[in-house]
Automatic annotation (TrEMBL):
Family affiliation: Belongs to the FAM20 family.
Subcellular location field: Golgi apparatus
Protein name from the UniProt record: FA20A Pseudokinase
Predominant location category: Golgi
Gene Ontology terms for molecular function: ATP binding; kinase activity; protein serine/threonine kinase activator activity
This protein's record includes keyword Kinase: yes
Alphabetical list of InterPro entries matching this protein: FAM20, FAM20_C
Keywords: ATP-binding, Disulfide bond, Glycoprotein, Golgi apparatus, Kinase, Membrane, Nucleotide-binding, Transferase, Transmembrane, Transmembrane helix
Gene behind the chain: Fam20a_1
TM segment ranges: 78-101
PANTHER family: DENTIN MATRIX PROTEIN 4 PROTEIN FAM20, PSEUDOKINASE FAM20A
Organism lineage string: Eukaryota, Metazoa, Chordata, Craniata, Vertebrata
Binding of ATP, residues: 20-23
Cellular component, GO, one term: Golgi apparatus
Matches recorded under Pfam families: Fam20C
């Protein structure tokens, strides 16, 4: 299902994208394959549950392995990164982005907010970082400015979710410091 308005579509039968995976062999590290709950429907007539169910994220939170780990928050981080770099294979547009923002890490949100500030603007940070690259210019000015626009879309989306559901529901506090072993021993002694 490729339309010219989809940036991931190639010459009509190719789909452009990238994938990086650094996993040991299954012999060394057996693992299960867990499908992404926000899989895309590649048909014009069908929609996935996340596209029609506004409570889908709540459902996903109750299912293993998303119910007892940071896996869901890590998927959101990956989706944010993919959206920023316009790698739309994983993140198929703003509708999916809105679906994912049922939770976001506080540290991720704080970094994104910092990169939206004039003195730390994402496009400026990238421009400066890429100046030393032997292939410079790696990104053109329109690409750099697009980073800022996409970052603002993310922040606006998170803001709408916070307005709708409340910060305590949307922002996961991953900034809490773990207690020291001495604190754990003191609790055991009492």
């Amino acid at each position: 299902m490729c339309k010219t308005e989809y940036a991931v579509c190639g010459n009509p039968h190719l789909l452009e994208g990238s994938l990086s995976a650094f996993l040991p062999s299954l012999n060394l590290a057996p693992r299960l394959s867990i499908p992404n709950p926000w899989i895309r429907s590649y048909s014009f007539d069908g929609k996935e549950e996340w596209e029609v169910n506004p409570l889908y994220c709540n459902t996903v939170r109750e299912i293993y392995p998303y119910s007892n780990s940071n896996r869901l928050l890590n998927i959101v981080d990956m989706a944010i990164f993919d959206f920023l770099i316009a790698q739309l294979l994983l993140l198929a547009g703003i509708k999916l982005l809105m679906s994912l923002f049922s939770r976001v890490k506080r540290t991720t949100l704080l970094r994104l907010q910092l990169l939206a500030e004039p003195e730390y603007r994402l496009s400026d940070m990238m421009r400066e970082s890429l100046l030393q690259d032997p292939l410079a210019p790696v990104l053109t000015e329109p690409h750099l400015l697009a980073l800022d626009r996409r970052l603002q879309l993310i922040l606006d989306t998170v803001g709408k979710c916070i307005d709708t559901f409340g910060e305590a529901t949307v922002v996961a506090n991953d900034t809490a410091q773990p207690q020291s072993p001495a604190v754990h021993r003191a609790k055991l002694d009492t």
